[in-house]
Amino acid sequence: MSSPSSPATATIPAVGRTARIPLPVLAASSLVLVTTALVLVFYVAPNDQTLGFAQRIFYFHVSIAFAAYACFVGGAWKALRHLWKRDPRADLESYVCVHQGLIFGAMVLLTGSIWAKISWGRWWVWSEDELVLFLVLYLFYCAYFMLRFSVDPGAQRANLSAVYALFGVVLIPVSFAAIRLAKEFLHPRVFTLHGPNFGGWILVTYCVSQAAMFVLAYTLYRLELGSKRLDSRLRDLREVLA
Amino acid sequence: MLTARRLGKRYGEKRVLRGLDLTLPRGDFLVVTGPNGSGKTTLLRICAGLAQPTEGTIERSAARAQVGYLGHEPLVYRELTALENLELYGRLYRVPERRERIGMLLERFGLWEVRHGRVASYSRGMTQRLALCRVLLHEPELLVLDEPYSALDEAGSELLDAQLAELRGERTFLVSTHDPARVEPLASGRLALAT
Amino acid sequence: MTYVRDVGALARKDLLLELRARDTLPAMLLFVAAVFVIFHFALPGTPSRLETTGFLWVAILFTALLGLGRAFVPEREQRMMDGLVLAPCDRSAIWLAKSLATLAFLVAAEVVALPLYALFFHAVGGAMVAAVLLADLGICGVGTFLGAMAVVTRARDLLLPLLFLPLAMPIVVGAVGASIVAAPGRYLVFLALYDLLFAVVCWATFEYVVAE
Fold first, then answer.
1. How large is the ipTM?
2. Which residue of C has its CA nearest to B48?
3. Which of A199, B50, C146, C192 has the highest Cβ tally under 10 A?
4. Is residue B112 included in any domain, yes or no?
5. pTM, two decimal places
6. Residue B82 domain-assigned?
7. pLDDT reported for residue A236
8. Is residue B148 part of a domain?
């Protein structure tokens, strides 16, 4: 035999995990690192022989780019956890990762455009592999958002988003290979940019900038995740009280 | 056959099912009633395996191949003929002696004459009868029927009565209906959902 | 073995549906011809082989999108996906079958499009044909998969090109490259690898697109 529907008993999911770096600490670290990076980039790093002072944007451009990659990979990882392990928190985490990645991606395109103007006098060049790659990825992840907002919240939206995020991360190396194939020239990697003269302050400045961008990305991720989780709990509470 | 504990289903903001417990032993015939919007369809979809609950658990001892589901949609391709539709399902469900079984079902439900006609040309009653053929084709152990009488004409309803009576006891049934009196003689349990 | 039979049964169904409807293939053929004509007027002067190869691939891509947008329409309109998902077959078989059926139609469209291209613009070489076939595999595999995703959204037809085009970029690079350069081997291998990689991803994840 069966029983009729029982009255609702509220089970609001428990608050966040322990063993996580508290947000104020992260925010403070970001501030310190970004400030240090700015100081290093503008005052300490040596001038580039060919491009002069304006070349310094490259430090930000590259470190933001890697931070964006990290966000996309993080988003794909969380997507995998959602699909495979049925982790109930993973969908939101994946979404926030991708969102951050998109913001940083936009900054890559912006700083890249500025760098292109400095180096070649035009606001866009097709000859820069990484820039073109980011353009493709930007379009891809914008479509992610269109997809997400075109489906009502629920299991299906989470599944579709997760699958698409996985496609994205597979696309990154494939696109890069495609762009290389199409252009057939070697992209100047940061560490060989200045040949045997690379080292010393240039390396330090780059590493600090990169660390700053990673920490900043993670801070923003935690910030947005926290606020989205709060919204979700509020909704749950409202529903229980209704 | 089927055990659900504290079953809940939410579609975004809207909560359709809440804290439902259900036990359906093998061979039983459970009738589900309730007003529109009480979650009957959602419950049946979850029991058939088409939807996952957002809270609670559901255990089903029947594999996908042993479940037959009849929903609001007949789940047949309108541009294919009755025969082609049943052939497809017959292949997918690996029905033994497919041709014979299809022929037998079409005949039983009065569709043999129109078997080569496209489903788009059928009346609603005929389409629903085809849907019943589809459900019964693979001789499922668990039959989940969502308002099976709603689209049937009187002749079709009588055919369904006969079919249900024949299988009662051999199979497990979960049937939702707006007309509980019709299936009352067969029922071994009743579940009334409230909004 | 049963997997192959499931795919066969489903593909048969898809081909039957399309043959009955008789609208997608003629539309694709007309579209390709019309697009070629537009291209002629869009690029005045005598375009080089490089440029017209570009035309061809844009034409193929958008013709494919036309067909792909229609792929899961019967399943959406009649909630048939429920019927297929209930069946005991592996869900990836649904994707594979639909891809194969779409591939058949795309190839059928190209059997007309390539000679038309040769007529209007430049001759078609063996490498180009190989590129077309390999690219078709990628286009149909990924496109069908994304078509299934797009069909459950509100935006539907709007969304498919947005989802698909960034993923199609490597296909275009491989295809155009193979059609132009003297040694197309590298590009053809790249296309084959793309097809393989994304086929695996599609095959492994289609389950999550159709079932909750």
1. 0.90
2. C86
3. C146
4. yes
5. 0.88
6. yes
7. 81
8. no
